[in-house]
Amino acid sequence: MKRRLAREIAVQSLYQMEMNEVTAGDAVNMLVDEVNEENEIEASAADVSRIDEHVRELVNGVTEHKAAIDDMLQHYLTGWQVDRLSRVDRQILRLACLELVFRDDVPPKAAINEAIELAKHFGTEESGKFVNGVLGRLLQEIKPKA
């Protein structure tokens, strides 16, 4: 559950960074504080610290690899351009791509399932299907079946 919350905060942070041109640190600080104040994090101080750390790892990872991620996503978007996607879908796809390609601490199917759930939560009615389709194509190519 803490990883899901970290992903939610990471997507919101990436969105804030793009919409309001704030730094990663400012976006993460603002959102973690807001979630903590609203008592959405029912956890110990150590757990809150781990969530904050994980959010920062995700946001910094997307920021660091953004160009490569966008190039990769562009390859799997049929009839779309990365910069023409909804901002929410774009951030969810970037985060999932980070977890699928640049990290090895999340099983690929879990990363995709989490992205679909984020898309259903934050996106439009069709976002979950769209995200699933793009990430499914990406996964088939980067992790071919034996």
CATH topology: N-utilizing Substance Protein B Homolog, Chain A
List low-confidence stretches.
none
Supply the CATH superfamily name: NusB-like
**What is the rounded Rg?**
15 Å
CATH class: Mainly Alpha
Helix content: over 70%
How many beta-strand elements?
A: 0
Number of domains: 1
Distance between the termini: 32 Å
List strands and helices in order, with pairings.
Layout lengths: L1 H19 L3 H14 L7 H32 L10 H16 L5 H15 L4 H16 L4
Helix pairs in contact: 1-2, 1-3, 1-4, 2-3, 3-4, 4-5, 4-6, 5-6
Describe the fold and architecture:
- By secondary structure, this protein is mainly α.
- It has a single domain, classed as NusB-like (N-utilizing Substance Protein B Homolog, Chain A), CATH 1.10.940.10.
- Helix content is 77%, strand content 0%.
- It is globular and about 45 Å long.
- The mean pLDDT is 87.
Concise account of the structure shown:
With 146 residues, the protein is mainly α. The protein has six helices and no strands.
